């Protein structure tokens, strides 16, 4: 199998595999005070320090979770509940139109269940960039404390957002108490990136070559947060539950590494793709993107047709977000970018990672070439 779906999950890297395997020899509960417990605790705290270095924060600001979706939920729900408990409630929750479903679903549920909370969706341009003028306008003409949630890089198109500029506008127009949550799942470990100005940052181990089932929410010391899982006092009282020592150890191992830059593979793939299918549309092509991601559509070739054809040739790609690609529906990300539904239903995402090389690109292109040849023969 040639695996070109690294934005969904990345194969376990050797350092992470070793860390996980070694951690399974640790049998103590990290909350216990005896020697076995202290050994487990040391593994968790070492990983916490590594993740803190990755996110340029203090180790005490790292809250380990079961993954990115839980971290997103904790950021939104924990911030709103924590602000209310501190006597300075959040009145406006703003999310971009291209956020991950774990943000969108939690935001909608909070708006429905929290009295006085208004939900605002910030539009994006045709290239997938947040419309900063619209954000500024919303901030200037609304009232009440703001929580803004925006992803650093879109999981489907790879389009990058200017987080420092967004943070600057938020503080200028939303006031000093305005809060910013950044979903950094797709950028962390893949490229140098600034989370400057963010109060909450979501990270996920398995997008970086770590194990599935481990994530983190970075919570700045001044940011409000109310725990959403009650019970023990784990994670400094911010997230109860016995820690997954093995998964967290693997997370810490990959936090020290960086993915190889796959821009050359991605650019080469797109260059040859345009030769094979001159009518191909590459979404977000004019914007700065993750160096490993290409989301494209060949008009008239449905996503299902391409996925099946490539899979039969041993090439794994995706039609969009891993959480929703099994459902036959157009992407909300492409819809927000103004992509017509008939074209969105042809979208394919190719995302390269640390296991890929030029031969994988060649194989994917050869498979697409065969598919296009069959289509041409049928049309003749």
Describe the protein.
The mean pLDDT is 95. With 380 residues, this protein is of the alpha/beta class. The protein folds into two domains: 2-9 and 260-379, Alpha-Beta Complex (Aspartate Aminotransferase, domain 1), CATH 3.90.1150; 14-255, Aspartate Aminotransferase, domain 2, CATH 3.40.640. It has helices at 14-23, 35-55, 68-85, 101-113, 132-141, 163-174, 245-255, 263-276, 303-312, 332-336, 341-344, 358-379; strands spanning 2-3, 62-65, 90-96, 118-122, 145-151, 179-183, 200-204, 215-219, 281-282, 293-297, 315-316, 347-351. 39% of the residues lie in helices and 14% in strands. It is built from twelve helices and twelve strands. Strand 3, helix 4 and strand 4 (118-122) form a beta-alpha-beta unit.
Which properties best describe this structure?
alpha/beta; Aspartate Aminotransferase, domain 2; seven-stranded mixed sheet; 380 residues; three-stranded antiparallel sheet; Aspartate Aminotransferase, domain 1; 2 domains; 12 helices; globular
β-strand percent reads 5-15%
Percent in helix = 25-40%
Largest sheet: 7 strands, mixed
- Strands of the widest sheet, in order across it, are 2-8-7-6-5-3-4
Q: Unreliable segments (pLDDT under 50, ≥5 consecutive)?
A: none
